[in-house]
């Protein structure tokens, strides 16, 4: 078994009002069940980060990635399955009806567009010492502010 961390790509989808899109993982998910999360997932064999980012946005929302506004960060963590991961997250814009995402059936149960002052909701159902998704969101909002939305 490989000791290399799994590679993941994540999209913080921003709207024109300065909000970021989050979706709740279904309670049946093995990793982070019933938690808020950004759009994203593991890279498939032979896939680069940009390809994974585009694929995940479409699979999880039905939208199409239009452009990357900037890199939010690179995060290393161990999931509750014991596997190490390295995640590359980007602030992006998408094309599509932002009021009507097509959530991936069985994987996500609801979505929210959050303003920066609402990020504490992302701690719901997370380990109290975790806070990873909130930190990623805060860094995403910082990138959004730095580019003037």
UniProtKB/TrEMBL annotation:
A single Gene Ontology molecular function, please? hydrolase activity
Which Gene3D superfamilies does this one have?
Nucleoside Triphosphate Pyrophosphohydrolase
Q: Which UniProt keywords apply?
A: Hydrolase
Instruction: Tell me where on the tree of life, at the top rank, the source sits.
Output: Bacteria
SUPFAM superfamilies reported for this sequence: Nudix
What name does this protein carry?
NUDIX hydrolase
Protein family (similarity comment): Belongs to the Nudix hydrolase family.
Give a yes or no for keyword Hydrolase in this entry. Answer: yes
Parts forming coiled coils: none
Pfam name, any one? NUDIX
Q: Which organism is it from?
A: Micromonospora lupini str. Lupac 08
Q: Which CDD domains does this one have?
A: NUDIX_Hydrolase
Tell me which InterPro entries the record gives.
Nudix_hydrolase, NUDIX_hydrolase-like_dom_sf, NUDIX_hydrolase_CS, NUDIX_hydrolase_dom
User: Nudix hydrolase domain spans which residues?
Assistant: 4-136
């Amino acid at each position: 078994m490989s000791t290399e961390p799994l590679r993941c790509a994540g999209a913080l989808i921003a709207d024109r009002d300065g909000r970021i899109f989050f979706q709740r993982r279904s309670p049946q998910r093995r990793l982070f069940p019933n938690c808020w999360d950004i759009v994203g997932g593991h890279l498939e064999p032979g896939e680069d980060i940009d390809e994974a980012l585009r694929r995940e946005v479409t699979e999880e929302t039905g939208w199409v990635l239009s452009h990357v506004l900037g890199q939010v960060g690179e995060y290393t963590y161990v999931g509750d399955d014991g596997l190490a991961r390295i995640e590359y997250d980007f602030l992006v814009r998408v094309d599509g009806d932002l009021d009507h995402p097509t959530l991936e059936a069985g994987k996500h149960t609801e979505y929210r567009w959050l303003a920066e002052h609402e990020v504490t909701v992302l701690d719901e159902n997370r380990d109290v010492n975790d806070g990873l998704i909130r930190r990623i969101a805060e860094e995403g909002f910082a990138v959004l502010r730095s580019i003037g939305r």
